[in-house]
Specification:
single chain; about 80 residues; alpha+beta; two-stranded antiparallel ribbon; 4 strands
Length: about 80
């Protein structure tokens, strides 16, 4: 089961100065670039990096769901 993570924030580091930003996943999906508030350089995430992060998060959630014995989003009573 896929959960919408667009509102969640993830850390993104500026490749120029190393400043860590926390940005919403939905913004990262659609933003052409981010502007670092520290050095004012514009940068983008590497192609595929966001997909890798999201797939990893979904795998972790699926694994947790299996360990708990119920799909995420449902409760056993």
């Amino acid at each position: 089961m896929k959960i919408d993570l667009d509102a969640e924030r993830i850390p993104v580091s500026c490749p120029y100065c190393g400043m860590q930003h926390f940005e919403r996943i939905g913004i990262l999906r659609h933003a052409p670039g981010l502007v670092c508030v520290a050095c004012l350089e514009t940068f983008r995430m590497q192609p595929g990096q966001l997909d890798f992060i999201l797939e990893s998060a979904h795998r972790s959630m699926d694994d947790l769901s299996m360990r708990l014995g119920s799909p995420l989003g449902t409760r056993s009573r």
